Amino acid sequence: MSTEKFKVVHYLNQFYGGIGGEDKADYQPEERLGHVGPGQALQAALGERGEVVATVICGDSYFNENVETALSAILAMIAKHNPDIVVTGPAFNAGRYGVACGAVAKAVAENLKVPVVSGMYLENPGVEMYRKYAYIVETSNSAADMRKAMPKMAKLVIDLAAGLEVSPATHGYLLQGLRKNYFHSESGAKRAVSMLVSKMSGQPFTTEYPMPHFDRVAPNMPIADVRQAKIALVTSGGIVPKGNPDHIESSSASKYGKYDIAGITDLTVETFATAHGGYDPVYANQDADRVLPVDVLSEMAAQGEIGSLHRYFYTTVGNGTAVAKAVTFAKKIAQELLDDGVNAVILTST
Amino acid sequence: MRLSLGNINIKDVQFGNQTEVKNGVLYVNKAEMIAHLADERLASIDIDLARPGEATRIMPVKDVIEPRVKVEGKGGIFPGFVAKVDMVGEGLTYVLKGAAVITTGKIVGFQEGIIDMSGPGAEYTPFSALNNVVVIAHPALGLLQHEHEAALRIMGFKAATYLGEAGRSVTPDEVITYDCPSLPVALTQYPELPKVAYVYMLQSQGLLHDTYLYGIDVKRILPTFIYPTEVMDGAIVSGNCVSACDKNTTYHHQNSPVIAQLLARHGQDYNFIGVVVTNENVTLADKERSSNFTAKLIGWLGVDAAIISEEGFGNPDADLMMNCVKLERQGIKTVLVTDEYAGQDGASQSLADADPLADAVITAGNANEVITLPAMTKVIGYSEVADVIAGGWHGSLHKDGSITAEIQVITGATNELGFSKLTSKAI
Question: Is A167 in contact with B424 (Cβ distance < 8 A)?
Answer without folding.
Answer: no
